[in-house]
Design goal:
CATH architecture of the largest domain: 3-Layer(aba) Sandwich
Structural class: alpha/beta
Strand order of the largest sheet: 3-4-2-1-5-7-8-6
Helix content: 40-55%
CATH class of the largest domain: Alpha Beta
Largest sheet: 8 strands, mixed
CATH topology of the largest domain: Carbamate kinase
Bound molecules: adenosine-5'-diphosphate, the ligand N[C@@H](CCC(=O)OP(=O)(O)O)C(=O)O
Strand content: 15-25%
Distance between the termini: 25 Å
């Protein structure tokens, strides 16, 4: 049942139609030697493949300052604002050129968009930015966004591009924000300093315990995991899920879109329900059915509750835990469908039984409900 669980847990990316991909400085720069053009070519190939599948991708790319430093022959990142601004202005050219030439190999146009904090906090400019981006996406152009480093000062800058990526995800109501970085995801401690650190595969974006483990960035990046977690919280506001993953994993974007467990998935508290339900509703393959009594039909339709065995009168078909089953009323009318927590044989034993008896009947309890409400869609 691994496979079903995998897809159920990652459905928001599997069904995503619009994705913001953020590529960080730590990843883009060739050990501080300027842009890693070969790696950029690889990400462009992946994005083009998503495009061909009909997924709209908006790119948020860092790297201007790092690329500018190399072009200018500077060894160390300057601390003076005017020098950072100059480096960004020089480097942004190289960045744009690099993306443009790689996307051109796939017959795709790019558009450079440089935003500042003001552009997104001022309502009028926000709406202008939104309509321009929507138009570009509708034209199948790939927007490549960065902060307009040349005109911002410390007080008004995002600084890290994680925040910018999240705001763009909000702006476009994207389904997902994918943050590609130099680590496999969020670990329970910074893996640079703690080799024992373990990857956190999944969590709630607003889980306060994650704040404690998310540290600052490396030499090249700006915000580290702390700003990535904050970005996930921001993105969650408009219902987007966030994935933090390593850009060095081969075909990371394609594999995520296939539902593979890579990196850290950070789910919003409320809104992903809509995406999840959309995905559930779109699933065609049903392995069996559960007949519900009138009380169960009422609570499912009325209050969006989970389905308990006590409200089930009959089980048909052969299904396994995690399979999609149909819920019908006593007349056989379709009421709901969802991913079931028990296989058909166990479900038959549980028919009409209250949840507190599950353990006594089966010898174990997988879950107190037959179908959890998160995995259920009323038809
Ligand atoms: N809990 C953690 N898990 C993973 N990485 C962490 C964690 N805490 C801090 N980091 C650091 O965050 C860095 C990635 O962030 P950053 O350097 O800002 O990259 P980017 O430029 O891709 O945004 C990692 O290289 C790592 O050292
Ligand atoms: N706007 C800056 C990028 C800032 C930055 O490095 O952010 P991040 O990739 O989040 O660590 C640049 O292009 O150099």
């Amino acid at each position: 049942m691994e496979g079903n669980e995998q897809v159920a847990g990652r459905e928001a990316l599997v069904g995503a139609r619009r994705v913001v991909v953020k590529i960080g400085s730590a990843l883009l720069t060739n050990d501080g030697r300027g842009l890693d053009e070969a790696a950029i070519g690889g990400w462009v190939d992946q994005i083009a493949a998503l495009h061909r599948r009909g997924i709209e991708v908006v790119l948020v790319s860092s790297g201007a300052v790092a690329a500018g430093m190399v072009r200018l022959g500077w060894q160390a990142r300057p601390s003076a604002v005017h020098e950072l601004q100059a480096a960004a202005a020089v480097g942004q050219n190289g960045l744009t050129e690099c993306y443009e030439s790689h996307f051109a190999r796939h017959g795709l146009l790019t558009a450079q968009i440089l935003l500042t904090h003001d552009d997104l906090s001022n309502r009028k400019r926000y709406l202008n930015a939104r309509s321009a981006l929507r138009t570009l996406v509708a034209l199948r152009v790939v927007p490549v966004i960065n902060e307009n480093d040349t005109v911002v000062t410390d007080e008004i800058r995002f600084g890290d591009n994680d925040t910018l990526g999240a705001l763009v995800a909000n702006l476009l109501e994207a389904d997902a924000l994918v943050i590609l970085t130099d680590q496999e995801g969020l670990f329970d401690a910074d893996p640079r300093s703690n080799p024992e650190a373990r990857l956190i595969a999944e969590g709630r974006a607003d889980d306060p315990s994650l704040t404690a483990v998310a540290g600052g960035g490396g030499a090249l990046g700006r915000g580290g995991m702390a700003t990535k977690l904050q970005a996930a919280r921001l993105a969650a506001r408009s219902g987007a899920v966030t994935v933090i993953a390593s850009g060095r994993q081969p075909d990371v974007l394609g594999r995520l879109a296939e539902g593979e467990r890579l990196g850290t998935l950070l789910l919003p508290e409320q809104a992903p329900m809509a995406a999840r339900k959309r995905w559930l509703a779109g699933q065609l393959q049903v392995r069996g059915s559960l007949t519900l009594d009138a009380g169960a039909v009422k609570v499912l339709k009325g209050s969006g509750s989970s389905l308990l065995a006590v409200g089930v009168t009959a089980v048909s078909g052969q299904f396994r835990r995690g399979d999609m089953v149909l819920c019908v009323d006593d007349q056989g009318h379709r009421v709901a469908k969802g991913l079931v927590n028990y296989g058909a044989d166990e479900a038959r034993l549980l028919v009409g039984k209250p949840s507190h008896q599950i353990e006594a009947i089966l010898g174990y309890m997988e879950a107190p409900e037959l179908i959890h409400r998160d995995n259920l869609v009323v038809l």
